[in-house]
Amino acid sequence: MEILHFLGxxxxxxxxxxxxxxxxxxxYSLFALxxxxxxxxxxxxxxxxxxxxxxxxxxxxxxxCGTSVYDGKCVELNHALWTAIPAAIIGGGILAVxxxxxxxxxxxxxxxxRLSQLISSIGVAIILVNLAQLRFTAERKGFPIADVxxxxxxxxxxxxxxxxxxxxxxxxxxxxQESGVSISPIQILVIIVAILLMVGLSxxxxxxxxxxxxxTVAFNARVGNLLGINTELIYMIAFFISGALAGSAGILxxxxxxxxxxxxxxxxxxxxxxxxxxxxGLGSIRGAVVGGFLIALIEVYINTATKYGYLDQAFVFMLFxxxxxxxxxxxxxxxxxxxx
Amino acid sequence: xxxxxxxxxxxxxxxxxxxxxFAVEQGQVVTLIGANGAGKSTTLNTISGLVxxxxxxxxxxxxxxxxxxxxxxxxHGLIQVPEGRQIIATMTVQENLEMGAYPRAGGWLGWRGExxxxxxxxxxxxxxxxxxxxxxxxxxxxxxxxxxxQMLALxxxxxxxxxxxxxxxxxxxxxxxLVNEVFAIIKDLKAEGKTILLVEQNARKALxxxxxxxxxxxxxxxxxxxxxDLRDDAEVIEAYLx
Amino acid sequence: MWGLLDSLLQPxxxxxxxxxxxxxxxLATVGLSEPVVQFMLMNAILGVSIYLTLNxxxxxxxxxxxxxxxxxxxxxxxxxxxxTLGEALLYGMLVAGIxxxxxxxxxxxxxxxxxxxxxxxxxxxxxLIILHFDTLAVEFRDSKIxxxxxxxxxxxxxxxxxxxxxxxxxxARGITxxxxxxxxxxxxxxxxxxxxxxYRLHHSRMGRAMAAIRQDERVAxxxxxxxxxxxxxxxxxxxxxxxxxxVFNALATRTIEPxxxxxxxxxxxxxxxxxxGLGNWLGPILGGLTLTAxxxxxxxxxxxxxxVTGVILLLIIVYLPGGLTSLMIPSFWRNGGRYEFAKRVxxxxxxxxxxxxxxxxxxxxxxxLGYEFWxxxxxxxxxxxLLLWVRYTRQRQNGGHFSLPLMGVGITGVVxxxxxxxxxxxxxxxxxxxxxxxGMALVGLGGWISYPAEER
Lengths: 340, 242, 456
Ligand SMILES: Nc1ncnc2c1ncn2[C@@H]1O[C@H](COP(=O)(O)OP(=O)(O)O)[C@@H](O)[C@H]1O
Ligand SMILES: [Mg+2]
What we know:
heterotrimer, A: mainly alpha, ABC transporter involved in vitamin B12 uptake, BtuC, 14 helices, binds adenosine-5'-diphosphate, binds magnesium ion
């Protein structure tokens, strides 16, 4: 209890805040993983990643709301809500591949310095954000409120015990209410999807032939080429995965914070995602996951336990800045030579 | 088997190869000797498709491969063991060898690839040949010594079941004992009927194992003869054998 | 001292004003009004500020932050203390420069991407601090430890330090009613002095040292060049210039808000330098002027100025990495460079036309394009052209043999397009029309450039 007092947490609902940090953290990790994959395989810091995140949300929105989102709000769903998720994943993946072909492939072919790739990715980010603004206007859009189950789960009235789904809901609700956690079905979905994608990804990278090919190309593309690996294909897959992760993070964010889709929804995440991968070590897959949860924890802590909630962003950037100076390879990364 | 005609390669304004022609026949060990910067690695990299020729043709088993990508060339059994070994330091010995069989296994999807039992059998063969690798199969390749890394690089190429192996200075940076060991391995491979294009600065050793030799000087072929003849050639002795 | 400086400068400024008058009138007729010209000049200064660091091999995106510092110092000094432009400029540059020293010392040890992202972080921190400055100021004033330090500093900014709420940067609303002191003549004179300084720098020992550091830091260090010193000097100079631009900016626009100096501004500044090219100091000036002018000149594009910045950044970095000024270097046009450039120009054209056909074609029901059916036909022609191009480059590597089809496709495209507009097949000449035209012209231009000199 001493410690809690010292940390300013004596009044906080710790399980609830932890839950908050967990679902926010899974979102950050998901987003940062995409950054990290492209960085580790190609050495590109793709600053248009947050724009893919944003477009992913629009893809999802358009998939389940139809073309009505082009000009106005989405009043009713054309297709089931879940169609938004695969649409965002596939759309984000394809978008990332297209970006690679237009903005990075020519530079790679000519062996341009790495910073050129950073600059062209900034160019792409600007274009994508502005296109979204032209296409969908700057207005914030979302799914119809009634269709998104994002009210906290609690023990509902009139449950039909015969229905297996309701029994499950009741059980969940009881568990959460006992512990004081308030969490919505969508937040649970975020956590589940994020964990599935993260586990799947680490399996692919560590165990499959694709993962080994990716690691080989990441180590040295020429060697990969000499071993018979189609490096361009691997790059394409890496970009697809990265875009798919960004897209999925985008749509999950849009669902959880509904209505939340606007052309600038990626802006704050762009730099936060950067912080996450810097914290975890640039290009480290494990680092991106750990970093994501850590940043979320720090944010939630600042917001609940201190009176400096309005400074949470500033704290994150200070941390980012500090880590770059003190330990640029991140908490889990290997030492790097890009430092004098 | 491999026929190079009039190959010219440039890096920007630098002319690295000035129209060289040579051939490697099935079952032969052909060596390309020359000083540092003569263009030996460039030759191998051009054959491998990493560098594109400005002019000339490369024929492998009757097919023109100039326009192919490096991965496709490797998939057709033209395997290079690059200069400085280039094993994948972040992977284990076993994984490195598996990567050697990447095209055989059918690429990343494993489409129409060979069974992994077949490949594992070939990996066992490599362990037979280099027992020291077997002991270290779970170690990260980056932790191996220079000699072991060269064995691993050779093993990785062998697992690919090459039709033609191109070795770029396999003895570079090794202690004399290990140099002898590497050349003994090449002799073994020759005895097994493998076709090898060997690039070396260590001309004496290279001429000892090779059937035929070309001397490369500043991007041009200065001399070509059966290796046996060059061993007694006064100029070569003066320039390379000292 | 101010009096002396004033009496020295005033005649020069008067002269400049007189000389500029006819020029400004001329520019106004093409859509570049005086405020626009002022922005062009400020952005040229900003271009130079990032050039100074890039020229030393440092990719720093911190300049928007320093610009913000300059702008706020200028605004506070003029609104609270009645400072003149000269004083505001002096203190704005000084404060930016002084803050740059402790930032630069640790940060400049980083390189490459790490430096870039650290400076992005710095910019964000500056923006957030300015945004929350008033709340923070109260916190610090009331804190036991920092109070004694904070008070005298705050006294410089507000009259009544002990007020319950401090109103200094005024958060997201920003500072309003800033006096307008910046005149075009000030900017022109500043830029001329700056140019002279840059010209001298290039031929000085310091300039050569900086070039050596850009080439290879380790080699430079081994030649006895004090790398850390020069890097920091360049960083501080860049910060001071950005600060100056900020002061000019604040004293030209009446209102400033933190939003205007965020990551977007940092990227704009980068775009000036990239567009102009980093080969020499003229590049960033040219880039700053051009990139600011383009959206104003093409009125239809104004709405899309964000897209234009992005597209230019992308096209230049991908297809003309040396920037506009690299076109002025004769050696570029000798064989190899010319041929490569032709390929890139063509590709840029194809990409532009392709993008117009694929992407914004559908945006806002043709508001961008202004045509629907014909665009597809021409787009397809371009694809044919592209195929021809690829085919011919593969076969013959010396150019000349793919020039003709490309020129054919390009010229046909341009002629057809103008003809279409003339006969009224295109409802209204929207942005997409121009982009398409430019794209086709680039395809033709690429063909022409690659045509062997001896046959031209
Ligand atoms: N990537 C490159 N860029 C520019 N020049 C190169 C490159 N690689 C090799 N060269 C030049 O080409 C020539 C031949 O090099 P290389 O083939 O590596 O010689 P070797 O393997 O015989 O030592 C040398 O003059 C070298 O400087
Ligand atoms: Mg070599």
